[in-house]
Known about the structure:
By secondary structure, the protein is of the alpha+beta class. The protein has helices at residues 20-32, 42-51, 55-67, 74-83, 87-106, and strands at 109-110, 115-122, 126-133, 141-151, 154-165, 172-182, 188-195, 199-200, 209-212, 215-220, 229-233.
Amino acid sequence: MFYGELAEDKGEIRIPDVDPAAFLAMLKYIYCDEMDLAAVTVLATLYAAKKYIVPHLARACVNLLETSMSAKNACVLLSQSCLFEEPGLTQRCWEVIDAQLCAYRSNQWRYRGRCDSIQFAVDKRVFIAGFGLHGSSCGSAEYSAKTELKRQGVVLGQNLSKYFSDGSSNTFPVWFEYPVQTKQDTFYTACVILDGNELSYFGLEGMTEVQCGKVTVNSTGVQGRQIPELIFYA
């Protein structure tokens, strides 16, 4: 396009099939190593990354789509995942769709060993000590929980632990081995895989912003989730 035998000889080069904001995000990554992804342009950025063969940026786009997915956009992302040939994203779409169908039919969540996640950011530096999770809706039960905290796909903290659910609608804490420090205004991904009684309580239509003391937490992916609480200290 710019150099070599096929370089354009025009002063201005038009790229009509790529969104300008997405193209700018790609240039920032290529030249500044800066990951500037937004939910409203992530699909367009993924298209640009695929077109110009920028695999790490494409992977980051897919990670954002997976963690911010909800019942409202799962069907749209399903068709896009097939177009972009991203089988992992396709599988995640089907999991969200399947979970929502089960949840609405029975007013309960079915684990089936799936990974559930939310993406969040805080406006101050905090230390994430663990998560509060829902428990069994069919009497007392014990769960094994694999918890992870990630940033741009990199695991910052993880733990494999067990907790006992008494059958109530309360949440139950699970802890990391060591608290994980997070930076302000930076998005992180909280992930959990549970093994135990299949039917459980679940959150639905959660809040995208929560004020806790002097800390504000913003999150995405609040449609029918299994991580209702972040346990942290400032």
